[in-house]
User: Which sequence fits this backbone?
C-alpha cells in the first residue's frame, strides 16, 4: 500500500527529529534487567523417525561446525536425524540442500563475533537493508547490539537487550535500554510514538522479525543450508557467546539406534542408518564415526571442505563393516595437506598413494 505525501513527510520528520535530537550530548543510563537462565525442558522429538533409508541418525560431540564463511556453531552435544530431501533418499555430504538436520536434543553455542558476521553477510546482505555494520557483545546478562540504522539518514544506535525464548521457539531480544548517537533513545521514541517495528522493515531478512521494539530470531531459519529443524527450549548468555538448548537432555536416539560411539574419542560425529554419500562413495545402512585427530580442542569441521579433511586423514574398517574415520582440524591443516587434497592424493597411516 503506498503512502500519501503527508504520511511520507511525517515519517521523514520523525526520523530527522530522532537523528538531530540523538546527536546532542547527554547522559547515558542503562536499566539492569536479569532475564535469568531457564533450564531445558522436555519436548517430544521434532519429527517422527520413520524406519526408512531416508533417515540417518546423527550425533555430534564437541564439534566446531562451519555453516558460513566466518560462522560456525559449537555443537557441544547434539543428537538428531538427517532427513533426505532427495528422491533417492540419499543424504549427501556434497549437497547441503539434500537433507534437513532435525535436532532432538542438543546444546548449540554461537560466538557473538560469528553472530555479527552472520547478520552482516547473510541475514541482512541484500540491497536496501535497513541495518548494517552490526556487532554483538555480551555484557553480564544482556546482549548488546550496535550498528547503523539507515532511514533517510544514517543513525548509529546501541541496544542492550534481555534474551529469552518464546513458546514458539524463537529467540526474543527485548530492549532494556537504547542509545541513539550516544543518548538514551527509548524515551524519545515513546514520546514520538515510534517503535522499531515502524522504523525498520525486515521483511527481506532471513529468520528475523520485529514486533513493537522486540527483535525475534528464528534459529531454524537464521542459518544457511543445511536446513535445521527442532524446538528451541531455552537460551543463555555466556562470556562471548549465545547458547541455545534444543529439546530435553538425555533424549532417546533416533530410530531406537544405539548412538554410543565405537571409539573412546572426546570429539566426534557419528552417523548410523540410512544411506550416506561422500564423493564417489555410498554407504548403505550407514555406520560411520568421524573422529578428531587433535582432541585437545573442539573438532574443527567444514562440510563444504570435508573432502580436504577426509584426504588428509585416514580410516579403519571395523569387524562389523562400520567405518572409523580420522580427520585433522580444518584450521590446523598444513599447506601441503591442502595441496594433496587438490591433487587427489589419499593419506593413510603408512604414507600416501595416488588415487586412480
Assistant:
Amino acid at each position: 500500500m503506498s503512502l500519501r505525501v503527508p504520511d511520507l513527510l511525517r515519517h521523514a520528520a520523525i526520523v530527522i527529529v530522532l537523528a538531530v535530537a540523538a546527536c546532542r550530548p547527554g547522559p547515558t543510563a542503562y536499566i539492569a534487567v536479569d532475564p535469568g537462565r531457564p533450564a531445558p525442558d522436555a519436548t517430544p522429538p521434532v519429527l517422527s523417525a520413520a524406519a526408512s533409508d531416508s533417515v540417518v541418525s546423527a550425533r555430534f560431540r564437541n564439534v566446531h561446525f562451519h555453516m558460513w564463511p566466518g560462522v560456525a556453531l559449537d555443537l557441544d552435544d547434539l543428537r538428531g536425524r538427517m532427513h533426505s530431501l532427495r528422491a533417492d533418499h540419499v543424504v549427501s555430504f556434497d549437497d547441503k540442500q539434500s537433507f534437513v538436520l532435525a535436532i532432538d536434543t542438543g546444546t548449540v553455542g554461537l560466538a557473538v563475533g560469528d553472530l555479527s558476521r552472520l547478520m552482516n553477510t547473510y541475514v541482512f546482505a541484500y540491497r536496501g537493508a535497513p541495518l548494517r555494520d552490526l556487532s554483538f557483545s555480551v555484557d553480564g546478562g544482556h546482549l548488546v547490539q550496535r550498528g547503523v540504522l539507515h532511514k533517510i539518514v544514517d543513525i548509529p544506535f546501541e541496544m542492550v537487550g534481555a534474551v529469552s525464548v518464546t513458546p514458539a521457539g524463537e529467540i526474543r531480544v527485548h530492549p532494556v535500554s537504547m542509545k541513539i548517537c550516544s543518548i538514551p533513545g527509548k524515551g524519545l521514541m515513546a514520546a514520538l510514538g515510534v517503535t522499531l517495528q515502524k522504523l525498520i522493515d525486515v521483511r527481506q531478512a532471513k529468520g528475523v522479525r520485529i514486533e513493537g521494539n522486540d527483535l525475534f530470531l528464528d534459529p531454524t531459519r537464521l542459518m544457511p543450508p543445511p536446513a535445521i529443524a527442532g524446538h528451541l527450549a531455552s537460551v543463555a548468555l555466556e562470556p562471548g557467546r549465545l547458547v541455545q538448548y534444543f529439546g530435553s537432555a538425555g533424549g532417546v536416539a533416533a530410530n531406537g539406534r544405539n548412538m554410543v560411539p565405537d571409539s573412546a574419542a572426546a570429539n566426534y560425529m557419528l552417523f548410523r542408518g540410512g544411506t550416506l554419500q561422500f564423493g564417489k562413495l555410498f554407504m548403505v545402512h550407514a555406520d560411520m564415526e568421524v573422529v578428531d585427530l587433535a582432541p585437545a580442542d573442539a573438532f574443527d569441521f567444514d562440510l563444504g571442505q570435508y573432502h580436504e579433511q577426509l584426504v588428509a586423514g585416514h580410516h579403519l574398517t571395523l569387524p562389523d563393516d562400520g567405518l572409523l574415520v580420522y580427520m585433522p582440524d580444518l584450521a590446523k591443516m598444513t599447506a601441503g595437506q591442502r595441496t594433496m587434497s587438490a591433487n587427489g592424493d589419499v593419506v593413510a597411516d603408512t604414507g600416501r598413494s595416488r588415487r586412480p
Summary: Residues 126 and 204 are 8 Å apart (CA to CA). The radius of gyration is 24 Å. Residues 5-22 form the longest helix (18 residues).
